[in-house]
Amino acid sequence: MKHSALHNWFDSQNVPVKNVFDQEGFSRQKRGYRNINDIEVNLSDPLFTKQWYLINTGQADGTPGLDLNVAEAWQLGYTGKGVTIAIMDDGIDYLHPDLASNYNADASYDFSSNDPFPFPRYTDDWFNSHGTRCAGEVSAAANNNICGVGVAYNSMVAGIRMLDQPFMTDIIEASSISHMPQVIDIYSASWGPTDDGKTVDGPRELTLQAMADGVNKGRGGKGSIYVWASGDGGSYDDCNCDGYASSMWTISINSAINDGRTALYDESCSSTLASTFSNGRKRNPEAGVATTDLYGNCTLRHSGTSAAAPEAAGVFALALEANPNLTWRDMQHLSVLTSKRNQLHDEVHQWRRNGVGLEFNHLFGYGVLDAGGMVKMAKEWKTVPERFHCVAGSIQEIHKIQSGNKLVLAITTEACQGKDNFVRYLEHVQAVVTVNASRRGDLNINMTSPMGTKSILLSRRPRDDDSKVGFDKWPFMTTHTWGEDPRGTWVLEVGFQGEEPQRGVLKEWTLMLHGTQSAPYIDQIVRDYQSKLAMSKKEELEEELDEAVERSLKSLMSKNN
């Protein structure tokens, strides 16, 4: 119709019309929406298309979009330049053509042989390929027609050979963890105590001191960043029994497979901060992690949480390039704030929200690392406030525990309010527990915060028959109450799970709070969360709370800008 004809038609309908304009159609796109098939990353490396953990288009029957979102970080120009990651392992094939150009020889050392050449010891079964595979995930070069690419393909990688020996010593661990802390930015460790479901072990005195020195003095006082694989003991183990993965000074990383499920070997615990990817469950040979292998070779079969930790180290390298001033605590805050639920799921452990609305999972922590989201927030990030430590209370009377009856204890605290070490916003919480049982593996320990967040501090470990040692001042740690106000009543529940009746004695529970006195972004998240609680019915909250937290993070970004 022409304009006059349109006018006449509207007049006949008694509809007043001022003007009529032709309308052209044009494009509008949802911001933040990413079509996996439209990602423009052109790399010549032959295994790149099989590195589904970098860009998941559904390879090996995976779930499209379930990846580390590295493409966004790369497109923003961040590839790890200027950052050095140390792989503490069984050595690195630094002659590998996909690693040689990014190898930092000056920052490397062999603590097993006491020389500066951490080349893996040869065995017929290629047993010492672990470190080389981890190195490729982080720093394999791009566009050289060899294997695949690293998460941070312009970063430097250092080799610290310390695993390949008959036994470990405290001094070797301590020397490795403290090697060149002003040159090395990130230490990646895919090892720990035996994952047999009955071991309770952690760093000894020298190693603990080395880690403390690292976070306090490394990187010019900004703190060394320690990335730790959470463990491969599966449902038979609990990573809170691993003193490396459950340390406040490490970032503990679990894994998911390419369809979002947990791998069968994944351990769960309340100290896990976030997740990346590995293989498991699927027989498809391309569902593993593609990376470099010994003697110039490539592999599609790297696996375990061993593969997960180096991926995280690569993402952190991208964030450090975006903002070299990030402290070790900044990196933990960024992990909490930018990790995503995405499509991660587990039949047993459901996603929950803590008292300030942050979504977490007992297996996956705060979700899968998002490289694009992390570098964008890191770029304008302001260093978090000073950290304080408060002994919130301690119960040291003997309490009996019997099957069929849970022991319930409570500590009410003001979190050192009125003192210099007042903790208002939580980061890490430790429950230091001394307990003995007729069967340690049947013990189950839960702790609930004043804001109602329940952390599973210890799950049943069916292979642990210990009846003598128990836990002696063992610091069970949770990250699930991140950002919460710790003031109020904390509740500890201790009981037994298992077929046979058991008995035990709890001798101590000391509550340790670690956090800050100010954290503006948490205030914003709390306001949005409480607003939604007031306006919505409980069953309608789930989708709306996602939007509340998203708005809070955007508000944080705009304030930093």
From TrEMBL:
Keywords: Cleavage on pair of basic residues, Disulfide bond, Glycoprotein, Hydrolase, Protease, Secreted, Serine protease, Signal, Zymogen
Biological process, per Gene Ontology: peptide hormone processing
Gene Ontology CC: extracellular space; membrane; neuron projection
Catalytic activity: Release of protein hormones and neuropeptides from their precursors, generally by hydrolysis of -Lys-Arg-|- bonds
Gene Ontology molecular function terms on file: serine-type endopeptidase activity
Keyword Nucleotidyltransferase: no
Subcellular compartments: Secreted
Purpose: Serine endopeptidase which is involved in the processing of hormone and other protein precursors at sites comprised of pairs of basic amino acid residues. Responsible for the release of glucagon from proglucagon in pancreatic A cells.
Name under which the protein is recorded: Neuroendocrine convertase 2
Organism lineage: Eukaryota, Metazoa, Chordata, Craniata, Vertebrata
